[in-house]
Structure formats: C-alpha cells, structure tokens
C-alpha cells in the first residue's frame, strides 16, 4: 500500500507573500498533503498576530484542496513527526539563504533522521522577495501589488499606513 506523502512547510509568514504561495503551489504538486505551519514562537513579535497569519494563509490557499494551515510550538521536527510528515519544505532565494537553511536542515536531520528538508526555488520575480521587504515598502508608501495578494496588501496598508 502506498503511504500518503505529507510535507510540513514551517515559517513565520508575517505576512504570507506571493513567494510563499509560489512554494506552497510547487509543494502541493509534489506531495499528497501539505501542512503550512506558522511557528507560534515567531508570532509573539512581528506585525500580525498568529490568528491573522492563519487567516491570511487560509484565504490564500483556499483553492488548493491538499493544503491545510496550522500552527505549532517547539521543535519543527517533533511537529512533523506528530503529523506523519517525512519532509520539511523550505525556500531558497538568494545565496544568503543557503547557509542558514543548510545549518537548520543538518540540525533537524540530527534531531530526527526520518525527516528530510526539501528546498524549493521560487519563480524568478520572487527571488528577492521577503516579508520584511514588503513591510518596509508599504511603510514608506510604495506599491506591493506584485508581491502579495490584494487582501493582504489591504491588511498591510491598514496596519502600517492607517488604511490610506
Ligand atoms: P522563517 O522565519 O522561518 O524564515 P519566513 O516566513 O520568512 O519564516 O520564511 C519561511 C520559508 O519560506 C523560508 O525557508 C524562506 O526561505 C522561504 N521564503 C520566504 N520568502 C520566499 C520567497 N520569496 N521565495 C522563496 N522562498 C521564500
């Protein structure tokens, strides 16, 4: 019998960008089930609350039937084990991501050799995109419609520019 292939995509998603969504769509084609999981430790600081991040991810992935949204505390590999996931999805953009992602992947491998990290690359327009950059652009009044969905852009404007 073929076992269901489950992947966990952990992150802060403060807020989710089109780069995150690009990766979620790629992962949804490779795995039977993808669980996008907000690290709730990361939600203590940041622009959006855990509930807001979960709402934004749920809205953005509504058209993808094999994607679900959740949150977790503590070790990512432990959460993956509980969910029966054998893969963690992470994104590789510019070279600077590589060292960080490699270090984390090797540490996670030591913590649980049953779980592998699968790094995916986004489409070219999202290679230099991060949640941090999006927040900075909006804070200074710039456009981000090519980087986030319209509802997320509206939330960013409301939070950072008082809705103007
Ligand atoms: P974290 O705090 O865990 O880095 P993020 O939400 O910033 O959380 O990112 C989660 C994952 O998504 C990371 O592996 C990051 O490299 C990846 N990622 C973020 N933005 C992009 C993007 N534009 N293209 C591809 N991967 C991305």
Structural key phrases:
single chain; 164 residues; 6 helices; 5 strands; 43% helix; globular; binds adenosine-5'-diphosphate
Query: How do the strands line up in the largest sheet?
Result: 3-2-1-4-5
Summed up, the helix count is 6
Helix content: 40-55%
Secondary-structure element pattern, one letter each: EHEHEHEHEHH
Strand coverage percent: 15-25%
Strand tally is 5
What is the distance, rounded to the nearest whole angstrom, between the alpha carbons of the first and last residues?
Answer: 56 Å
Which residues sit in consecutive blocks of at least 5 with pLDDT less than 50?
Answer: none
Mean pLDDT: 95
Sketch the major β-sheet: 5 strands, parallel
Computed Rg? 16 Å
Dominant shape? globular
Named once each, the bound ligands are: adenosine-5'-diphosphate
Task: Give the class from helix and strand content and strand pairing.
Answer: alpha/beta
SSE order and pairing:
Blueprint: E1 6-11, H1 18-30, E2 33-39, H2 50-60, E3 67-72, H3 76-83, E4 87-91, H4 95-111, E5 116-120, H5 131-139, H6 150-161
Parallel strand pairs: 1-2, 1-4, 2-3, 4-5
Adenosine-5'-diphosphate is lined by residues 11-13, 17, 19-20, 23, 42, 90-91, 93, 97, 122, 126, 129-131.
Describe the model.
This protein is of the alpha/beta class. The chain is built from 6 helices and 5 strands. Helix 2 (50-60) links the parallel strand 2 (33-39) and strand 3 (67-72). The mean pLDDT is 95. The protein binds adenosine-5'-diphosphate. Residues 11-13, 17, 19-20, 23, 42, 90-91, 93, 97, 122, 126, 129-131 line the site of adenosine-5'-diphosphate. Adenosine-5'-diphosphate binds at residues 11-13, 17, 19-20, 23, 42, 90-91, 93, 97, 122, 126, 129-131.
């Amino acid at each position: 019998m073929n076992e269901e292939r489950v992947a966990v995509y952990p992150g802060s998603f403060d807020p989710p960008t089109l780069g995150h969504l690009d990766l979620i769509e790629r992962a949804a084609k490779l795995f039977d089930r993808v669980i996008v999981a907000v690290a709730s430790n990361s939600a203590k600081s940041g622009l959006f609350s855990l509930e807001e991040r979960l709402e934004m991810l749920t809205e953005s992935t509504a058209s993808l039937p094999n994607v679900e949204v959740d949150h977790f505390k503590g070790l990512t590999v432990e959460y993956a084990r509980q969910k029966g996931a054998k893969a963690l999805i992470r994104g590789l953009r510019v070279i600077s991501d590589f060292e960080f992602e490699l270090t984390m992947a090797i540490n996670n491998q030591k913590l649980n050799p049953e779980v592998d990290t699968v790094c995916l690359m986004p489409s070219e327009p999202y290679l230099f995109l991060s949640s941090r950059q999006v927040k900075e652009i909006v804070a200074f009044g710039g456009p981000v419609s090519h980087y986030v969905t319209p509802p997320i852009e509206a939330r960013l404007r409301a939070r950072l520019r008082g809705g103007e």
